[in-house]
Design a protein that fits this description.
heterodimer, A: FAD/NAD(P)-binding domain, D-Amino Acid Oxidase, Chain A, domain 2, 3 domains, 8-stranded mixed sheet, 11 helices, 21 strands, globular, B: alpha/beta, FAD/NAD(P)-binding domain, 7-stranded mixed sheet, 5-stranded parallel sheet, 8 helices, binds flavin-adenine dinucleotide
Chain lengths: ~475, ~400
């Protein structure tokens, strides 16, 4: 397809393949360091892979594998998020987390978790008894025996953050190409000629941030992959906003060998959610949900916070972790072909993305590339979607409120339909504005949205009668 | 129009400009209440009937057979004529004791106070998420309300060959909506042995050309970005029905997030606020009316309820409605009983309250409905109940002044 067409005239310093949270953070870091960057995303909107659904927790790394690259990236990412979030208008709710023991056996495991947290450089983690846990979280079931408190675990916005990272890259000279799948490529004379569904793109270096497809991309363009992705699905249930008063901190279970387990967490949008499950599967696209699993999540939630039994369900969703046969990130260089693979960023990528980007830029720039960091780069302002912020509906001249459940204004929707990252699908618009993500799930506003978005989406929400 | 904060104090603020809210406001004005304001978040008042492009609406109210939109317009003009202020594009974002309401308008946010509030935000259908339906998230999975708005208010259609899930009255409205837009449903499925709505099921396929599969449930929605089929399970096992959308009809639930996030006590059975026989909420300056009280009644019924609530609030404002000194709690443990409303009877008894308990069931059954007053059998009646059908228990004789609890039971 379009083999002879060139996507852009210039030869970029770096092509980043994949517009997930990792690719977005990567584009920002490389741009700020002075590289000419192109980000290529195969989906209609960015954040359509693993990054479309997660628990939105900014982790401290208290439970990460000791001395691992993952731990280092999480902590570097955490630090950088703290440095930049205010200037970018990104939310941060430092709720803290409790790793709660519900059985004697789990209680016996707490000291080891505490020791690991301290070893991992999270010195403020402490053991708390049932009474102080109850004082802090009065709605928790009385079955809770004890907990480790990790004050630094925080909530962030899983979409505004990566969006703002990429926006900053674009504002400072990077380019993004959506609907642009990398299908092949050749390395010659110190540079790559990438084949994409929209034409050829030249770049000296390539960074594979293809998430759930990272192994396939390596195999396709390098001829081999050092890991194999087995997607691990996580399903979630989101409760009515009224439920958000039932917990303050993130309620974590004592982890098993395989997963962090089922978490109860608030979101910055004012919901309370329970999840995720951990289900290995072959499909890289199937993020379907199933009733029995969702019901078991609800039951697990009610077991921990009995008052949840009275709360209606607002939303259900599932995300796919790019897991592989190793329990570590797969970040590797292929120096003879100017290629870096950033693979299997399994379950901490949202927290670690900024740190991963620092690390990968370090690898790339080890021998010095002569880029000059941008002086006083421009800083974009993220959409203010978090509940703690003054929202657009609270300001004058927003037009009107379109989505009543999430209080999304016409002005917000119209803004999300503009610019190089304009939403081109309902899913993209939801991530940008939260429209239809509330309790009625589009009952009241679907028709208005179909009108407003007409002509903007790749596939029209609902064509006019006669046009379809 | 004057600013809401200007002018005389607001006597009654009505949240929601559907049939019940408009009827209540109109009645209040007719009873001489000075300032009555309807707060409606949509650009146009009228509520759900605005997008029900079919008859019959309006017989009870106007002795005429109207379509939903005609009916909605008539309600609005009757209210305006009576002197009701209708504020559209005005969303009530929060409620507090006072009563104090936080309003979101295109000009920004403001708080208002009123002597009384009537909470009348209606019902909607349960969306896919809250039904925990398995399968993909694709476009073309929606409720009847969204389809009706698309078709009648925007002239659009989200699919051409959907599967209709549900056999309530609204499911048949959905078929009418589909036909109006040239959409041809592939089939209708329902879990019961008969349709929930009284419909001669045998005639159904012939009349509409749409196959009806009873005792059949939706198992999973298949596809990717769009729906390609739905897996259903019926008496003959599982099978896939090819379709390009799934229309989830009925399973009504009150639009009650405001109360749940606010200070009002809510009822698990109805999903709406707990009320007494006057429609008074746990905060007695708040009243509730219309389908918010319970899923689900017709527009005419909701209108009538609104009118009666308007009258009660007028009496309250002029001091002829006694405050509750004590309340009888109406309760049930019976799984077959889905809801009972009102959930409280305020004493002393005074006229003009609801005259009956409204009861709904979860499944078809035959037996006796019994009411126990403080443990002693006080009322009993043989019944043949079906879900989604109203059942009324007259309150006369049940509300002795010493009673504390009325308990509903069912015996086979
Ligand atoms: C259930 C769940 C819960 C989680 N909870 C948390 C949490 O609380 N905190 C946290 O820090 N992390 C969490 N995570 C982890 C986090 O979401 C992931 O680590 C992160 O999203 C991985 O991002 P990525 O950019 O590597 O991959 P992706 O988001 O998959 O991005 C890769 C992108 O590459 C594109 N692409 C693929 N192939 C090509 C190609 N050939 N050409 C062009 N584009 C291509 C894809 O379309 C995709 O957009 C969770 C994950 C899940 C699933
Ligand atoms: C899809 C559907 C189809 C139906 N079809 C029929 C039918 O064919 N025939 C029939 O008789 N009945 C039908 N009904 C039943 C319907 O509920 C009643 O007809 C009637 O509309 C109930 O009136 P109401 O005033 O209680 O609520 P509604 O008509 O729902 O009115 C509530 C109003 O409150 C507004 N509102 C909600 N929240 C706020 C807020 N926070 N701030 C400000 N305003 C708010 C809404 O915008 C709405 O205008 C249908 C219901 C649904 C959901």
């Amino acid at each position: 397809m379009n083999m002879d067409r060139r996507l852009a005239e210039e030869t970029f310093d770096v092509a980043i393949i994949g517009g997930g949270v990792v690719g977005c953070a990567m584009a920002r870091r490389f741009t700020l360091e002075g590289a000419r960057v192109a980000l290529l995303e195969k989906a209609t909107d960015i954040l359509d892979g693993a990054s479309k659904a997660n628990s939105a927790i900014l982790h401290t790394g208290f439970d990460a594998p000791p001395d691992s690259l993952e731990l280092a990236c999480i902590q570097a990412g955490y630090r950088e998020y703290l440095e930049v979030h205010e200037a970018m208008g990104l939310p941060l709710e430092r709720t803290g987390a409790y790793v709660v023991a519900w059985t004697a056996e789990q209680e016996a495991a707490l000291p080891e978790i505490l020791r690991k947290a301290h070893d991992n450089g999270v010195p403020d983690a402490v053991l708390v008894d049932a009474a102080s846990l109850r004082a802090a979280e009065p709605h928790l079931s009385t079955q809770a025996r004890a907990a480790i408190h990790i004050p630094g675990e925080s909530l962030i916005d899983p979409w505004s953050a990566p969006h703002a990272y990429l926006q900053q890259a674009l504002d400072n000279g990077a380019r993004v190409f959506v609907d642009c799948e990398v299908t092949g490529g050749a390395f010659a004379d110190g540079g790559w000629s990438l084949e994409t569904s929209r034409g050829r793109l030249e770049a000296r270096h390539v960074i594979n941030c293809a998430g759930l497809y990272g192994d396939l991309l390596d195999r396709n363009l390098l001829g081999e992959s050092r890991f194999t992705i087995t997607p691990r699905k996580g399903q979630f249930v989101v409760f009515d906003k009224a439920a958000s008063t039932l917990a303050t901190a993130i309620i974590l279970p004592v982890p098993t060998a395989r997963t962090k387990g089922i978490v109860l967490f608030r979101t910055v949008f004012g919901n309370l959610a329970v999840g995720p499950t951990a289900e290995d599967q072959q499909s890289r696209t199937d993020a379907s949900t199933d009733r029995e699993t969702l019901q078991s999540l609800i039951d697990a939630g009610v077991g921990k916070i009995p008052a949840l039994a009275d709360m209606p369900v607002t939303a259900i969703y599932a995300g796919l972790r790019p897991a592989c046969e190793f329990k570590e990130y797969r970040i590797s260089e292929t120096p003879d072909r100017n290629w870096i693979t950033v693979g299997a960023i399994r379950s901490t990528g949202l927290s670690a993305a900024l740190g991963i980007a620092q690390h990968v830029f370090g690898l790339y720039n080890r021998d010095g590339k002569g880029h000059r960091p941008i002086e006083s780069p421009s800083v974009p302002q993220a959409a203010r979607l978090a509940e703690r912020f003054p929202r657009d509906w609270q300001e004058p001249d927003h037009g009107e409120i379109i989505c009543h459940c999430e209080m999304v204004t016409r002005r917000e929707i119209e803004a999300a339909l503009q610019g190089p990252l304009a939403a081109r699908s309902l899913a993209g618009l939801k991530r940008r504005t939260r429209a239809t993500m509330g309790r009625c799930q589009g009952f009241y506003c679907s028709a208005r949205l179909a009108g407003i978005t007409d002509g903007h989406f790749k596939i029209t929400l609902a064509p006019e009668v006669g046009d379809d | 129009m004057t600013d809401l904060g200007e002018g005389p104090d607001i006597d009654v603020a009505v949240i929601g400009g559907g049939p019940s809210g408009l009827a209540a406001a109109t009645e209040l004005k007719r009873r001489g209440i000075a300032r009555v304001v309807v707060l409606e978040r949509e650009p146009v008042a009228g509520g759900i009937p605005r997008h029900c492009g079919h008859p019959p609406f309006g017989w009870r109210e106007f002795r005429r057979i109207l379509t939903g939109p005609q009916y909605a317009r008539k309600l609005v003009s009757a209210a305006l004529k009576a002197g009701v202020e209708i504020r559209t594009d005005t969303s009530v974002a929060g409620i507090k004791p006072g009563p104090c309401l936080t309003l979101a308008t295109p000009e920004g946010v403001r708080d208002i106070t009123a002597s009384r509030v009537i909470y009348a935000t209606g019902v909607r259908e349960t969306p896919r998420a809250a039904r925990l339906v398995s399968g993909v998230r694709a476009r073309g999975i929606l409720n009847t309300g969204a389809l009706q708005s698309l078709v009648y208010l925007e002239g659009r259609r989200p699919f051409l060959r959907p599967l209709i899930v549900g056999t309530e009255l609204v499911s048949f409205s959905a078929i009418q909506t589909c036909r109006h837009a040239g959409i041809r449903p592939v089939a209708m499925i329902g879990e019961g042995a008969t349709t929930v709505a009284r419909w001669p099921a045998g005639l159904f396929p012939k009349l509409t050309g749409i196959p009806l599969h009873l005792q059949t449930r939706l198992v999973r929605i298949n596809g990717g970005e769009t729906v390609t089929s739905a897996t259903v399970e019926g008496p003959d096992g599982q099978r896939d029905i090819p379709c390009d959308g799934v229309l989830l009809t009925g399973a009504f639930t009150p639009e009650s997030g405001l109360g749940r996030s606010g200070h009002l006590q809510m009822d698990r059975g109805t999903g709406g606020p707990v009320v007494d026989q006057f429609g008074r909420c746990s905060d007695p300056r708040y009243y509730a009316a219309g389908n918010l009280l319970r899923p689900v009644e017709t527009a005419g019924w909701s209108w009538q309820e609104g009118r009666e609530t308007g009258l009660r609030v007028a009496r309250d404002l002029v001091g002829t409605q006694p405050p509750a000194q004590r309340q009888i709690h109406v309760v049930t443990q019976e799984p077959l009983i889905r809801l009972v409303m009102p959930q409280r009877i305020s004493l002393p008894l005074s006229p003009r309250g609801m005259e009956a308990l409204q009861v709904r069931f979860t499944a078809p059954a035959r037996g006796f409905i019994e009411v126990y007053a403080d443990g002693a059998l006080a009322w009993s009646k043989p019944v043949d109940v079906r879900p989604e059908r109203r059942f009324l228990i007259p309150l006369a004789g049940l509300t002795e002044s010493h009673t504390n609890v009325l308990e509903l039971r069912f015996t086979k």
